[in-house]
Amino acid sequence: MYHVKEAAQLVHVSVRTLHYYDHIGLLVPHKAANGYRYYTDEDLDTLQTILYFKYLGFPLTTIGELLAQSKDNRLPLLEQQLALLESQRAQLDVLTTTLRKTIQAQKEDISMTAQDKFKGFTWDDGKKYESEARKLYGNDAIDEALNRQQGQEEQATADFNRVFQQLASNKDAGLAPEAPENQALAKDLLDAIRRYGFDCSVEVFGHIGAGYSANPEFHKNIDQFGEGTAAYSSNVIKVFVEKNK
């Protein structure tokens, strides 16, 4: 049995956080006869699952749904978390190597290609987002996209990366989503989707843009260009769609 303050100290979160999880029904403590609230070891197992998913960028509503779906067997959730963390570690290894090469190049006055500088900041490293895209857009659309990209995968990645790198720069510079520079980038992104993906309508482009922010996998991927880039890109696309209906 762990009282609320004790549990908070044990797992390194605030009492206020536990109260909030209780308030939204994500993790509700038990109530003793004397009125004190407490957690069991099983509750702490659930809290561990919650905190791992939170670290991985999942919204609390999604975490709640996952917990409800796996109430009788948490093992699949733990395996999913491990796979996501290992994927992040592999990504960090690539980024670390890229940064070391950049530091060495600076020290030795060696030039690096743009591709080398941004290795690790890729639109679809290893195609690890393909399965998620298939769930959202269907097999036919993704198969068509892969066929269109055949033989020009590097160019497709470079074109998508250029758009998101520039969007990240515009975000940091404080440009509004409706700024002409951003709207031109939205058009470039739509053109790239049509060139390398499928014949995307403006309406569908709006749904894709919303997914950049709402879908945890896409959100995490795009935010590699800079925290907040996914949400910023979604807002840019939203303005573009409203202006081009």
Structure characterization notes:
The protein has 245 residues and is mostly helical. Helix content is 70%, strand content 3%. The protein has 13 helices and 3 strands. β2 and β3 form a beta hairpin. The longest helix is centred in the middle third of the chain and has 34 residues, at 75-108. The radius of gyration is 22 Å and the shape is globular.
Map the helices and strands.
Blueprint: E1 2-3, H1 4-11, H2 15-23, E2 30-31, E3 37-39, H3 41-55, H4 60-69, H5 75-108, H6 114-117, H7 130-137, H8 139-149, H9 153-172, H10 180-196, H11 202-214, H12 216-222, H13 229-243
Helix pairs in contact: 1-2, 3-4, 7-8, 9-10, 10-13, 11-12, 11-13
Classification by helices and strands: mainly alpha
Strand order of the largest sheet: 1-3-2
Distance between the termini: 58 Å
Determine the number of helices (DSSP H or I, runs of at least 4 residues): 13
List keywords for this structure.
245 residues, three-stranded antiparallel beta sheet, single chain, mainly alpha, 13 helices, 3 strands
Summarize the structure.
The protein is mainly alpha-helical and 245 residues long. The chain is built from 13 helices and 3 strands; from the N terminus they run E-H-H-E-E-H-H-H-H-H-H-H-H-H-H-H.
